[in-house]
């Protein structure tokens, strides 16, 4: 019988939380040169140039401040941030990982994490210890920057403010401009000061374009019959789960552990995929989709097509950009799963 992800309960020691904060396998070997800028979209080439300049400034240390990247952003301390904003599938994570690789800083002095990993680190170590740990680094890169609740708004704004004030260079990606983080999800107006302070620490670089994962490609492949999903789940590192059981299991695992949940896995099989209308379940599936994509794991899925994973009302709500990104990534992985 193939292993089930729903049976896994990864135990992640605190020491691994920091050691794992490097670009994931899909982006382990990327570079600015391997980024395929669309010649019809000038902002992509401009974003490459801006990210190159930022990474060079990080390596130059104080000389970067003289070139204007690390200007004083707030009275609290010097700002040191570049913010890559654009829709899903335009290569922002590729650029962020390329920036991390290109920065002439020892690997142990630069971190690459997702937003959920950053908030989890602060929770696991405690705020003061997280500040001290992160402040030992010259560069902190945060992918998939989102503010989903007021607590995270205050936590991240304060954390990044402390790091910026201590000279740490910050780089981030998101589908939402920094002064619009939290919009449509909670009473953002009540936390406007924190959001504006956070935005002031970044120079925004726009990355336009269409989703490269589906440029000239057909829509999501048709679902595989559940019997075929099960019969093809053979071999080492192959998992087989019933969709509802896996979704229920994800509720018992912290999202920061979804990466370790996939340790040793090389292909994921899902039976009975259905349309999800519960927002909490949907957001957990978004995180799982991101970790599957990071690890370039093919997905073989039965049930509804993956482009119908999220209910229409979710796709019209405040988290719609997250859901569309997840559908884009899962569709790409499902194409790999049928070949």
Automatic annotation (TrEMBL):
<dbReference type="InterPro" id="IPR027417">
    <property type="entry name" value="P-loop_NTPase"/>
</dbReference>
<dbReference type="GO" id="GO:0051301">
    <property type="term" value="P:cell division"/>
</dbReference>
<dbReference type="InterPro" id="IPR005654">
    <property type="entry name" value="ATPase_AFG1-like"/>
</dbReference>
<protein>
    <submittedName>
        <fullName>Cell division protein ZapE</fullName>
    </submittedName>
</protein>
<keyword id="KW-0132">Cell division</keyword>
<keyword id="KW-0131">Cell cycle</keyword>
<dbReference type="GO" id="GO:0005737">
    <property type="term" value="C:cytoplasm"/>
</dbReference>
<dbReference type="GO" id="GO:0016887">
    <property type="term" value="F:ATP hydrolysis activity"/>
</dbReference>
<keyword id="KW-0067">ATP-binding</keyword>
<dbReference type="GO" id="GO:0005524">
    <property type="term" value="F:ATP binding"/>
</dbReference>
<dbReference type="Pfam" id="PF03969">
    <property type="entry name" value="AFG1_ATPase"/>
</dbReference>
<keyword id="KW-0547">Nucleotide-binding</keyword>
């Amino acid at each position: 019988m193939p292993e089930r992800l729903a049976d896994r309960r990864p135990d992640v020691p605190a020491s691994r939380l920091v050691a794992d904060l490097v670009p994931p396998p899909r982006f382990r070997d990327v570079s600015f040169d391997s980024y395929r800028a669309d010649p019809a979209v000038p902002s992509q080439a401009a974003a490459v140039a801006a990210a190159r300049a930022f990474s060079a400034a990080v390596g130059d240390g104080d000389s970067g401040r003289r070139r204007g990247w690390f200007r004083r952003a707030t009275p609290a301390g010097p700002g040191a941030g570049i913010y890559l904003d654009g829709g899903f599938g335009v290569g922002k994570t590729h650029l962020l990982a390329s920036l991390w690789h290109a920065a002439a800083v020892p690997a142990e002095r630069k971190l690459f994490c997702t937003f959920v990993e950053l908030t989890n680190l602060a929770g696991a170590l405690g705020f003061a210890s997280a500040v001290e740990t992160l402040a030992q680094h010259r560069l902190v890169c945060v992918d998939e920057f989102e503010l989903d609740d007021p607590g995270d708004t205050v936590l991240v704004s304060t954390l990044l403010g402390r790091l910026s004030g201590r000279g740490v260079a910050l780089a981030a990606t998101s589908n939402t401009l920094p002064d619009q983080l939290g919009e449509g999800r909670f009473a953002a107006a009540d936390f406007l000061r924190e959001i504006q302070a956070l935005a002031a620490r970044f120079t925004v670089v726009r990355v336009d374009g269409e989703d490269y994962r589906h440029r000239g490609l057909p829509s999501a492949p048709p679902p595989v019959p559940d019997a075929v999903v099960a019969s093809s789940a053979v071999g080492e590192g192959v998992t087989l789960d019933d969709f509802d059981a896996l979704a229920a299991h994800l509720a018992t695992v912290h999202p920061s552990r979804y990466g370790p949940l996939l340790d040793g896995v090389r292909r994921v099989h899902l039976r009975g995929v259905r349309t999800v209308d519960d927002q909490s379940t949907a957001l957990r599936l978004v995180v799982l989709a991101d970790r599957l994509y990071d690890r370039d794991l093919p997905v073989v899925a039965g049930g509804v097509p993956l482009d119908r994973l999220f209910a229409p009302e979710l796709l019209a709500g405040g988290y719609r950009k997250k859901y569309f990104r997840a559908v884009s990534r899962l569709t790409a992985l499902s194409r790999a799963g049928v070949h």
